[in-house]
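We modelled the chain as a single entity of 287 amino acids. Its sequence is:
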Amino acid sequence: MENALQAENKRILKLLSYNVQVGIQTRHYRDYIMSSWQHLLPNQKRLDNLHKISHLLKPYDLVALQEVDGGSLRSSYINQVEFLANYSGFPYWYHQCNRNLGKIAQHSNGLLAKLPVNQIINHKLPGLIPGRGAIEAVLGHGEEQLKVIVAHLSLSRRARRKQVEYLASKISDYPYVIIMGDLNCSGDELRKQFASHGVTLKTSDNVANLTFPSWQPVHQYDHILVSPLIEIVSETILPDPISDHLPIALEVLLPSSILTTDAYDDHTHPIRICNNIDNKHINGIHL
């Protein structure tokens, strides 16, 4: 009876993290050379790939995006986060530009949500080379808030250590935490580094969650880590052959009180979530 009551008070949240490589299809190492021009110039194939990605994202509640473009020449001046929100049916989206190269490129992270987000905070991550960032999103109210971090960490181990230390300081007081992104290292390294700063996080027991390169994965770069109070139901690496990274999906159980949400219309134009600096209200929710 007690287990049934606990199950009634919890709800499944479907998570996905995907480094989309600005919509460039990569199937071989040689494609890095042959398709390098697509990092600077637009092409129709990129839009076709984004449409394919949008279909893949539809079943999920929260999606973390890395290597998206915020609207420059190479993306035909389309904000790819907003584009994917539109075509995937997400009512809320947020775009964080970390390297602004003007009309040439807008290197960004993104968050798509089917649940109302109460607060968004931008973080510039430490490192010798600027341009790495994290999105902090808070869902729910009171003691049972959920903190979601979307991040793209550095290739340098030294920089990653500083970035993990920084993120640990932002989540240490929260009982419900999810970290998603291209974190450029193994799960063991991440758990050990967070633990050294007093933060316990876990992943699934699936040791074969290799995501890079997508055509023959040998590295465990993409992750979804959660705090101990969050129950992991399942983890899947999706065989999507578009980007040079494979998307990683996780289903978790969380208290229903965190995940309560009003019904939304799939055909409503998605709303850009404002960060805390904007000090705006959307649909009665302070963001």
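As a brief sanity check on the tokenised model: The longest helix spans residues 157-171. Residues 2-270 form a domain with the Deoxyribonuclease I; Chain A fold (CATH 3.60.10.10).
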